[in-house]
Amino acid sequence: xxxxxxxxxxxxxxxxxxxxxxxxxxxxxxxxxxxxxxxxxxxxxxxxxxxxxxxxxxxxxxxxxxxxxxxxxxxxxxxxxxxxxxxxxxxxxxxxxxxxxxxxxxxxxxxxxxxxxxxxxxxxxxxxxxxxxxxxxxxxxxxxxxxxxxxxxxxxxxxxxxxxxxxxxxxxxxxxxxxxxxxxxxxxxxxxxxxxxxxxxxxxxxxxxxxxxxxxxxxxxxxxx
Length: 225
Description:
The chain has 225 residues and is mostly helical. It has one domain. The protein has helices spanning 2-14, 41-60, 71-96, 101-107, 114-155, 161-184, 188-191, 204-224. Helix 6 packs antiparallel against helix 8.
């Protein structure tokens, strides 16, 4: 069994794209801001949420520069405050951008001065196009890196469970964000309106997974401090 693990670990290390996404890639292999652009505050929200998740993965990969029993203990020694800051941002985004006013910015152009309504409509179309383009790419990257993390954990039983759970939930939140953002624009092409109930930041799966990530970070800090 030990030789099998070493063999699998060697394959994961040598194969391009198959190494540990936390230790072997910058920021867990995920794009800054999830790749979203800042056409509207709604896509800025996706940027902020995804950037915070991206930074959490980056913190997990920083294992040098502080004293500790293992590389993972060293990571907590230097990154504890940053991890707590970033999950705090994710939670704040979930609360703030679940408000209907951010959907109103798409649905109700009458709130803008008449001279600017055409421009605001163009920004809305830009945001919709960005969500359509970016979300599938983000989900694909999150899924691929999650699969790599699972493979590493199977090959390395000594990989800390607490670190694994933080990585697992972080990739899952990014996948859920991408799906929720895409689902939230259903119907736009037909009626140029968004459904308030489909606001990505009201999504129960995304909300639940964000809470689980917060708990996992707290557990990891206790485990490795």
